[in-house]
Task: structure prediction
Amino acid sequence: MLAPQRRIIFHVDMDQFFAAVEEKIHPEIKGKPVVVGADPKGGKGRGVVSTCNYEARKYGIKSGMPITKAWRLCPEAVFLPVNIPLYLQVSSRIMEILSGYADKFESWGIDEAFLDVSSRVKDFEEAKKLALQIKKDIHEKEQLTCSIGVGPNKLLAKIASDIQKPDGLTVVEEKDVKAFLEPLDIDKLLWVGKKTARKLNVLGIKTIGDLARYDPSVLAEKFGVMGKQLYLYSQGIDRSEVGMRGEVKSISRNITFEKDTSDWDFVLKVLDKLCEEVYKEVKEYNFLFKTVTITVRYENFETHTHGKTLPFLTNRLEDFKKAAHELMQPYLRPERKIRLVGSRVSSLVSAEKQARLA
Result:
């Protein structure tokens, strides 16, 4: 029986992405505290901080904080509005760079991606060199830094990328998995949010090591299927594949907000921008589409995907946006905050072939 093939996975996470892009566009603010979010209006504004750079964080400013509090903490900071079209444009170029290094590639929101490089390197030492080359390539072409986690699966690569920030590189080999995970706080584990962390803390589970030693049958009893999955994760086990690139069956874009939001005007504007980004690719490939799908992830990671098949093939942006807005309406609930939103078109047909058939 053949042994399973060794995998080497990268998780690339752009550093303070929104703020970093703004610093690139406005070099005069480099080195200053930068806050991206609502207009502070002299300390009387409404809304929250979307993200901020590391200089601003030194003053205690963080994502999700009321913009008025950020103003009080550092009134001399540079306050800038969220510019989603700009960030998507830069993201598209970065994802193009990253995909060129991978056998399999999967974007994870606007500023993160997984790369399967298993056939491109012979061992983790070579993987480290490749990761350094990727960091250099992004910096030279986009003047931005990223942090990269390298591991034998997506789970470990994702956790590793967050260990040394900014501009970090963390490599976790198979032999080091247990020692790497053991001391980490439980909320460092993928899919463990604040609520789940609190429930685990009540059981005496403070670290990933605590979870790895816990009785899996009790976890299954208390958390259901999620309990079993968390136990496997605590052992460093994750068999999920990095998304394949191949024949284009659908085109999609999604974005994870820096802070969960119930600002529906903002959500719909972002949805429109995502539709426009997808539409650019539809036009580039000269496709017609018939199915429109939106994805919504709430603050508790509950995720919904809702699609609609149109009665006709189309390549019109207005048809796409209209359908996306209709699909989104049931999910704009006043009591729920949204973490991620995405849009997709599928049932794709070449416009050229369709013309020949007409």
Q: What stands out?
A: Confidence is low (pLDDT under 50) at residues 354-358.
